[in-house]
Amino acid sequence: MKGGCGVYCFRKLFPPPSRIHEGNGRTLHPTQKPVALMLWCLRLLDLPAGSWVYDPYMGSGTTGVACVQMDLNFLGVEIHEPYFAIAQRRIAAERRQGNLFSEESKRRPITPAPAGL
Question: Which of 17, 23, 30, 51 sees the fewest Cβ atoms within 10 Å?
Answer without folding.
Answer: 23
